[in-house]
Amino acid sequence: MLVDLGLTALSALLFALSFPSFLSDRGWFPLGFVCLAPLFAVVRRSSWAAVPFYGLFFGYASYALFNYWLGKFYPLALVIVPPIYAAYFLVTLPALKLADTLFPRHPYLLQSALWVVYEYFLKTSGFLAYSYGNLGYSQHAFLPLIQVADLAGVWIVSLVVVYPSALLGRAIADGLGALRSQWRRYLLPASAYAVVFAAVVVYGLASFVDTRGDRQWKVALVQQDVDPWKGGYSAYRTSLDVLERQSARALAGKPEIVIWSETSFVPAIDWHTRYRPDNQTYGLVKELRDYLSAQDVPFVVGNDDGELRRLEEGQEARVDFNASLLFDHGRIVDTYRKLHLVPFTESFPFKETLPRVYQWLVAADTHFWERGTVYTVFEAGGVRFSTPICFEDTFGYLCRGFVQRGADVLVNMTNDLWSHSVACAMQHMTMAVFRAVENRRSVARSTNGGITTIIDPNGRILAGLPPFTEGCLAGSVPVHRGDHTLYTRWGDWLPPVLLGLSVAALAVGIIRRIRFGRPAPSSPKKG
After folding, report:
1. Does 244 participate in catalysis according to the annotation?
2. Helix 37-45 vs helix 154-173: angle between axes, to the nearest 10 degrees?
3. Which of 287, 385, 433, 451 could, after both became Cys, cross-link 429 (CB 3.0–4.6 A)?
4. pLDDT tens digit string along 188-230?
5. Has 352 been annotated as catalytic?
6. Active-site annotation holds for 254
């Protein structure tokens, strides 16, 4: 048991180090291909009774290490997120064990498919959807490999990356002695993988899009580096001063548009203009609008968008949306309201069924938003763009939806300053790389701390600012208007296909087991 526990802990550590981590801000992406091998070995070695325990342990340990920065964001998050993943692996590891039991000689292909099924259906769907830690994202720097994402999203990259771990885990599970005597068994699957891997890389090299003839959109991305947790007039005054100072620097370069970050200006501009509930705050809002009215270029501003709504009880109440506003000469041209809210910290739809949890979150100073309903596509200077807010760019379906509706560029407005962690900001940014490749559209990220950057349709980082510094990034964004990719047209088609194939394979295995009985051991048992 101690050996298996050590192997599980090793796998959790290698998994975390595959991504930007506490040891490397960029992550050690080659580890992604082998990080789960110890875990797959444990799945084979351990008994059915022990597998759930190892699942709980791996889920908790891997995400406590991988998301260590959550403790800086929201201490309660370390009480919430790792246990959720412990529960996920309580289900996932028995599924991997079933695949190994039914197909003891060659379980690795089915196990790889089941891993992708876990990533999509368990961890990236529903209220608790959380894309951080999908294995494919560890390969953000391996550009020839990740180009295949334009066919099937990050999921096909995860499938390519997890297979070596499943194969190696099966090979080493029975001990090095068994591996030395049976190594020929793994030649064919290893060779087949080498061929597939080479084909994926060749596809990637051949599919890079040429952006040299594309229109170059001159943008200015303001990184204000102001503590988002400080509220009140003084904090808002300081933030506006920084925004105006950096925007003045940006305007000297004659950009076509200036883009501020998520909730860069906190007081709800439209709400305070219409209702003026506080004279001091309204004065700050008026100053901002006067400033924007004097500018000759459009501005995109992250802001709270308040709305007066009549409740079922009959009284009126204010509801808030996390929003981005397009201004032209001080006039609000259009508004986008965030569609996918962060669970627990931005949204908790179980107020009535779980009132104690709701009150616990409220007591922790949680600010809840209403969810938007419209995939807004802005237009400025002939460029159509959409503004996924904060962790919305971690979801392929959302960015695909904007591109389907005509967005030429994806503009992510983010606030990662709260983390005080370069690794956290890098983990977030690496997922934006995949949104660019999946849709063959450039991504511009304007953040309040990191990482402000411009990414081309091939996932290349064209320019960026150092994280957690005040500054302004002036750069050219390629406006690529090529045909929609297979991913943009079909979306997340691969995980459902893998789910169907996995269910069919498991059903065949169970029927075969019932009909023919337990197969003979394919390798020596542990002593």
Report:
1. no
2. 50
3. 451
4. 999 999 999 999 999 999 999 999 999 999 999 999 999 877 8
5. no
6. no
